[in-house]
Amino acid sequence: MSHDSTGPVPTLEKNAPNSAQRAPSPQVDGAPYQPIQRGREDGGGGRFWSARRLPALLASLLALIACALLLYDIVRVRAGSDAASWRRNLADELSSRRLDDTVVIIAAVLALLLGLWLLALALTPGLRSALTMRGEPRVRAAVERNAAALVLRDRAMEVNGVRSASVKVRRSGVRARAEAHFGELDAVRGELTEALQDGVRELGLAREPRLDVRVHRPKQ
Amino acid sequence: MLRTLNRLLLALLGLVLLLLGLSALVGALDLPNRWGFGMPSGWAWSRPQEVVLTGADRTQWRDQGWWWPVVIGILALLTLLALWWALSQLRRRRAGELAVSGDESTDRGPGAVLRGRALEQVMGSEAAALDGVSRARVTLVGKRTDPSVRMRVVLDEHAVPDEVVHRLETEVLEHARTSADVGELPAEIRLSSVRHRPSRVN
């Protein structure tokens, strides 16, 4: 979950001189953002799929160690030495533990769970923090959820009457909470919703997220 | 593709572990007997009283001439496969040099060779100079005549992601396409940002 919130910021800053630092952008004059009409035909091309490098590295190293050790010992025994003690112990355990032995059942359950986990890793896209954007004909693009949350929080803070705002971006949608210290709550909510809808358009996402906006008074 | 390979092998490994665990549990809970289904004849794990692997089962082919060569061969193969799989995680498929003239069949000669690093740096600094971009890292991957681009872009305060992607395509990538003539340059862009304090402007 990506989350961005602000504590109460002194009201004085609202008209602080640092507004001059702001990069000129088209929505300064209050006109809604017009999305750029050059998205891919496949609407962004779906989720970003992780390469699963780390799980693959771990699995391959474990497999490498296990196979290499067993191979080494078998070749050593073929060459006339005695089998290593770990291999004799393993053979003894395997031929004495019954299937309803607790150790065997625990091992079986672990193997089952690990297998399910590996299958889930193999079949799900991962990269849950990347939200697919519409992109361009030759470009696939995604924005991280926390970056999206920052963009939306900045838009929320520009709304008149909003003292602090907290924006969470989930895969299912956007949840915004704001404290309004002046102005009608309904009016602030309306303005905030509009600002956030505009912010969502600026994100250029392939799938429009649900928007949930709540405004309340600061607690005294 | 590394992604497909990893997912294929992880799925295979997962399936083996799943089936192993499942069949041991089926035997341990005496399910064939209770639910009245039969396991294939010779199945070792059909009753809870059975041990995991009897000594007789383990050594049943030991006297056959083919047994040890086959065991050693399979283990050697698996070891090599695991080694190759591990190494391919560490290797980066970075395009070192690019064939600029693209079409080597024409009589334009061998054409120029452009170091991939150089193009990456040019694209990176051009991207970082865009409005709303604070940093950008560009990597070229794939074939030298038809590379593709991976971009990691860190957004500035008040960046408009939709606009940033559009300008990356129409300016940075388009410039690289026309100046270096290295094919279509399909790109994958990931936008992130650093935390910043809220500034209140109206």
Helix content of chain A: 40-55%
Sheet with most strands: strand arrangement of chain B: 3-4-5
Order of helices and strands of chain A: EHHHEEHEEHE
Provide the CATH top-level class of the largest domain in chain B: Alpha Beta
Multimer state: heterodimer
CATH architecture name of the largest domain in chain B = 2-Layer Sandwich
Number of domains of chain B: 3
Shape of chain B: elongated
CATH superfamily of the largest domain in chain B: ANL, C-terminal domain
Q: How would you classify the helix and strand content of chain B by structural class?
A: alpha+beta
Q: How many runs of DSSP E, i.e. beta strands of chain B?
A: 5
CATH architecture level-2 label of the domain at 144-220 in chain A: 2-Layer Sandwich
* End-to-end Cα distance of chain B: 49 Å
Biggest pleated-sheet summary of chain B: 3 strands, mixed
The proportion of residues in beta strands of chain A is 15-25%
In CATH's first tier, which class of the domain at 144-220 in chain A applies?
Alpha Beta
Tell me, what's the shape of chain A? elongated
Helix content of chain B: 40-55%
Radius of gyration of chain B: 29 Å
Keywords (chain A): Membrane, Transmembrane, Transmembrane helix
Pfam family, one (chain A): DUF6286
Transmembrane segments (chain A): 54-72, 103-124
InterPro entries (chain A): DUF6286
